[in-house]
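Predict structure. Chain length: 355.
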Amino acid sequence: MNNKINQSIFLFLCFALLGLTSCSPKTQPDELAATEQQAQASSSKSQTNPNQQIQKSLFLISKNGKEGFIDRTGKVIIQPEYGLAFSFSEGLAPVNINSKWGYINQTGKIVVKPQFEEAGIFSENLAAVKTGSKWGYINDTGKIAIKAQFVEVEGFSERLASVKIGNKWGYINPKGQVVIKPNYDEVSIFSEGLTSVRIGKKWGHIDKTGKVVIKPIFDEASIFYEGLASVKIGKKWAFIDKTGKVVIKPIFDEASIFYEGLAPVKIGNKWGFTNRKGLVVIKPIFDEINVFSEGLATVRIGNKWGFINKTGKIVIKPQFDEVDSFSDGLAAVGSKDGKIGYIDKTGKFVWNPTK
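Prediction complete.
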């Protein structure tokens, strides 16, 4: 179900939001898209960063091999001058200048000078950065908040971030204190007060104190969204509530997360959508799909991607080689030759494909 367009524009869905150097297999692209939307929503509300004076939606573009940003009308706000960049979050965006990473604000001003080997987007006023071979975190002024000491890290979510210590994963707070011991083989981000963790070959869920809330009995497990998580039981997928009770029986060949009231499910070789009652409300006729975002979902029929609404009606016909979900009214679409453009919900280009 991975329909990212290219590394520079969409890698942040995994690289910056959910792990910088680690993306757990059970964290599906749908989860990443949903987490991106959450980050953008919290970004628009943040008032702690003095660099956040504009708070408007900017979209990453590539032109003549350089990256910059446009607004939702397609107007260039920050000229394409960076070899690599990631999207804005909390008013700042990572950019690469002369092989080092720093941060710019929404006027294009450098507010954290390029000095890091790698960098992620801001989440909850902290961003993970790599100095030498180790990862730490900076605040929105560029000051080191948590010294570089970890081999692998993930971004903060609900005031906790997972870090790898030795061969195991645990969680730290914004002060860098280990608050959940590194006892886990794989982990996810916290969502709705819980996160999924793997111990040995089985997945379960813990709370923010590290207490096991749902025992590790599943072959795979997602994080919770809209009160439900998808879990794999044997060869089939089901959905559980926060008590661990199976509320939608294991009848699906694959399943993702609920978002905007529906969840992608695979029956046989095709994908459709189920509601919270376990009823398939959009027939499984698609080769690939993603969660709904702003009322539309990306779907692939054959080799082309388009968009459907919540009745299953195709509203933008499959015509694109690659697509991303709608965010703030626009969706990125791509071609096999690497060109990226943006369309609105009518399918009209507001930025013609470039690279």
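Summary: Residues 7-342 form a domain with the Methylamine Dehydrogenase; Chain H fold (CATH 2.130.10).
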